[in-house]
Automatic annotation (TrEMBL):
The keyword rRNA-binding does not apply. One of its GO terms (molecular function) is purine nucleobase transmembrane transporter activity. The keyword Signal does not apply. Belongs to the nucleobase:cation symporter-2 (NCS2) (TC 2.A.40) family. Azg-like subfamily. PANTHER family: XANTHINE/URACIL PERMEASE C887.17-RELATED (PTHR43337), XANTHINE_URACIL PERMEASE C887.17-RELATED (PTHR43337:SF1). Coiled coil: none annotated. This is Permease. It comes from Spirosoma montaniterrae.
């Protein structure tokens, strides 16, 4: 163990990291259940993936990073792959598995540097921020804060609705907790918003809010249950290998890869976790762990796993070794048995978390040079089309294609990496296939 840390510090850092990331236990099932997957089954898959892969990150990669189903990737699974393209959940899980295999092969062959060069940095920043806006839109929609409006397409809900008022309360409360750096701010916000939503379901009878009584709260059998393993092994490995689904597999794999690389670089900078060459420490092993997480995600029954940028919370507490990730991973296990209790959490309670996660993800736009229009315009299209088209795929497609067309048209074809032409071909195939 490094001299600047000790066992007590690592344990406390692991607990802090868990508190910063445990919201995924509730938020991930809330999103994937909209794709037709059972809440309890996704919860079990989320906990299993977070436990095993955080342990692998700690024991094998020796980095203080939590691994769990990624925000943005779960939105892609639900709203693009299943709802947008009409894939069945089983086929979508199969696509996640094959994306993991592709990611694993790329990591084993050590071609990550070539892959990174394919996608221009401005597009990577824009896609990350665009996914954040997409998640924010989902949060507002789940809370019925943004609603359909025939005159303007979308609009703000009326503020005499108890659900909207409860959401606003939860959003502002959670935001204050986050700004004040309260440990576990997001999960505290979810719990308090759930409690605030209880009168809505109890007295107004709205099924979109929580409706539990005192007997449920005090009855242990009502809040504890055996894990739901119904999604384990339910992936469709053959159906997901159709040629038309390769753009989905590609999107899962490369979004996960870039998300992972961004996390490793950012966390390494924050915690001084670089090797002698200035690269993130144990990068190869960390990427292999992420690839395994995505592969196992398809097997367990959830969207792809990835390293969490919230791991920086534990690093700020002094975590420097794999013990931090091991402790954080073990903290997930007790929640295997709490699916009945956690399933009572309504959409308006997780909606503030989604909105704020979007705020965290918007930061990369500051790295885009907006005065360089041949870079900025493709990045802008990718950024806005992800939420506006309700499709991460469409944002990726038009970002890639517009980058190539604009660069060639202004005489900067050298700025189009050779591999991007292959990506563009996949994009055209996806558009002609009607996706």
């Amino acid at each position: 163990m490094r001299p600047e840390t000790n066992t007590r510090t690592e344990i406390l850092a692991g607990i802090s990291t868990f508190l910063a990331t445990m919201y995924i236990i509730v938020v991930n099932p809330a999103i994937l259940s909209q794709a037709g997957l059972p809440f309890s089954g996704v919860l079990t898959a989320t906990v299993l993936l977070s436990f095993f892969c955080s342990l692998m990150m700690g024991l094998y990669a020796r980095n203080p990073l939590v691994v769990a189903p990624g925000m943005g990737l779960n939105a892609f699974f639900t709203f693009t792959a299943v709802k947008g393209m009409g894939l069945t959940p089983d086929v979508a899980l199969g696509a996640v598995f094959w994306a993991g295999i592709l990611f694993l092969l790329l990591s084993l062959l050590n071609v990550r540097s070539a892959i990174v060069r394919i996608i221009p940095l401005p597009l990577r920043y824009a896609v990350s921020a665009g996914i954040g806006l997409f998640i924010t839109l989902i949060g507002f929609e789940n809370a019925k804060f943004i609603v359909a409006n025939p005159a303007t397409l979308v609009g703000i809900a009326r503020f005499n609705d108890p659900i909207v008022l409860t959401f606003v309360f939860g959003l502002l409360l959670t935001a204050v907790l986050v700004v004040r750096n309260v440990p576990g701010a997001i999960i505290i916000g979810i719990v308090l918003t759930t409690l605030a939503a209880w009168p809505i379901g109890r007295y107004w009878g709205d099924s979109s809010a929580v409706n539990f009584g005192l007997k449920t709260l005090v009855n242990v059998q009502g809040i504890v249950a055996a894990p739901d393993f119904s999604l384990v092994g339910k992936l469709d490995l053959v159906g997901s290998l159709k040629w038309s689904l390769w753009p989905v597999i590609f999107a899962f794999a490369f979004t996960d890869l870039f998300d992972s690389l961004s996390t490793f670089v950012g966390v390494a900078e924050a915690g001084g976790l670089q090797d002698d060459n200035g690269q993130p420490r144990n990068l190869n092993r960390s990427l292999l762990t992420d690839a395994v997480a995505t592969t196992l995600a398809g097997v367990f029954g959830t969207s792809p796993g990835t390293a969490y940028i919230e791991s920086a919370v534990g690093i700020a507490q002094g975590g420097r070794t794999g013990l931090t990730a091991i402790v954080a991973g073990c903290c997930f296990l007790p929640f295997l048995f709490l699916s009945p209790l956690l399933s009572m959490i309504p959409a308006i309670a997780t909606a503030p978390a989604l909105v704020l996660v979007g705020a965290f993800m918007i930061k990369p736009v500051t790295r885009i040079d907006w005065s360089q229009l041949d870079d900025a315009l493709p990045a802008f299209l990718a950024l806005v089309l992800i939420p506006f088209s309700y499709s991460i795929t469409q944002g990726l497609i038009w970002g890639f294609l517009s980058w190539t067309v604009i660069k060639v048209a202004v005489g900067k074809s050298r700025d189009v990496p050779p591999g991007l032409w292959l990506v563009d071909a996949f994009c055209v195939l996806a558009l002609t296939a009607g996706h």
